[in-house]
Design brief:
2 copies of one chain form a homodimer. The first copy, chain A, is mostly helical and 225 residues long. Chain A contains 9 helices and 3 strands; from the N terminus they run αβααββαααααα. Chain A folds into 2 domains: 70 residues, Arc Repressor Mutant, subunit A (Orthogonal Bundle), CATH 1.10.10.10; 147 residues, Up-down Bundle (Four Helix Bundle (Hemerythrin (Met), subunit A)). The structure holds a DNA duplex (30 and 30 nucleotides). Chains A, B: This is GntR family transcriptional regulator. Chains A, B: Keywords: DNA-binding, Transcription, Transcription regulation.
Chain lengths: 225, 225
DNA sequence: GCGTTCATTTGCGTATGCATTAAATTACAC
DNA sequence: GTGTAATTTAATGCATACGCAAATGAACGC
């Protein structure tokens, strides 16, 4: 479905979408270099839109433009992960607090509730991929409910950067039972319009997740993703 | 002075720097439209580097590329200000907390102390421009001490977006005496390695500033900057 | 006078070509 | 064989050209 407000999709837009996909799918692995001309041919367009797309993705921290070496897909180190989780913790906690201040009805919270239900169901089936997808949806929706467009943009950017890492850690971590309980707590706090509790619970949730992931990376000596 | 590590300054880099300057100086006012060809001629280069620079500045929230209408300098509304201050509050408070955890010596805190001293001196002389410059330095240095590169990048971006607003509000607000006291408190908490206090004090500082600015904008019916 | 259609102009999006310069390769001296 | 200088190669950074769609304005009917 294509709304009338959509602006026509330019090649540059396609390049952005497609390059992101290639990075997340691992077809362009972290740390690898790629000539502009190579990417241009691969996506069936000239270097111009590729360069513009790369500029955008560069300022989003996904890759780097290096003279004469093409674009380098940026690896994510454990230190990067710590930075990113710290940012996510702060901004999502703010979003949770603000969401709880809005006095949302349960109807407003439908998507959030559905994400939680989907996570529960996926967890029962031990279907971690589906769980991860629903977890993403929960966090995205939580931030949306917070009502700050900049927080949305930043958290989306940060989540992009750790997406590759999750593919690795998801199957090394214990079953995310605690996570699901955390989410329900945050949901309740928002539904009951208790901003302080929503913030505190979500912060604790994120800090636990951060420590768990960083612990995993360290124990498995994963220096970059 | 040009270190050997500096990569050669490309026209695109020049365009980024120069366009930012033009926006902050008000030569390209908020809300105005500018043809790419016009900007290209103005900066003495072709449209190509202008477009690449614009892409970068677009993802930093300073302007917008619109088909056939050229580059639009994005205005900042009071709602935008609220969003930006919320983000700054969260991330700078985190930086203050982290800075206090590092066990910095007073030598490490020299720049921070100097910024405070400069603000005091400027305040005595009622030299608001110098005060604002030192205030900037304080916040930048505080975030640097926090040690999170992403927080640095994001807060720098957000500060850019409100820079124009300050030119307006700086001379409408009461003398920032409270601000200077706040800064000293944050400094002390970092020097005494008291993370929780550093965080709380800085948060209170930012929230006061936000409410003051938003109040000013509302009282003066300033709908966009 | 007002709306509608058609012609014209304009500016972006993109492809293409080329100069520059860093990197790679070879030639060569020792 | 190793280190250095000369030569070649190659990829970016940028200027330029052009098609196309949107905006503008003209022509025309009512």
């Amino acid at each position: 479905m294509k709304s009338q407000l959509d602006k026509p999709v330019s090649n540059t837009d396609r390049a952005i979408t497609e390059l992101r996909r290639l990075v997340f799918s691992g077809e362009l692995p972290a740390g690898s270099d790629h000539l502009e001309s190579e990417l241009a041919e691969r996506l069936g367009m000239s270097r111009t839109p590729i360069r513009e797309a790369a500029r955008t993705l560069e300022s989003q921290g996904l890759l780097e433009l290096r003279a004469r070496k093409g674009v380098r897909i940026l690896p994510v180190s454990p230190e990067d992960m710590r930075e990113i989780y710290d940012v996510l913790t702060e901004l999502e906690s703010l979003a949770a607090e603000r969401a709880a201040e809005q006095g949302y009805s349960t109807t407003d919270l439908t998507d959030l509730a559905r994400a939680i239900a989907d996570m529960d169901a996926a967890l029962d089936r031990k279907d971690l991929d589906t769980w991860a997808e629903a977890d993403d949806r929960f966090h995205t929706e939580l931030v949306r409910l917070g009502g700050n467009a900049r927080v949305m943009a930043i958290t989306a950017m940060m989540s992009d950067q750790v997406r590759r890492a999750r593919a690795v850690t998801l199957f090394m971590r214990p079953l995310p039972v605690q996570s699901n309980e955390d989410h329900r707590g945050v949901y309740e706090a928002i539904a009951k319009a208790d901003p302080q509790r929503a913030r505190d619970l979500h912060r604790a949730h994120r800090e636990r997740a951060r420590d768990m992931i960083l612990g995993l990376l360290e124990r498995h000596r994963l220096r970059q993703l």
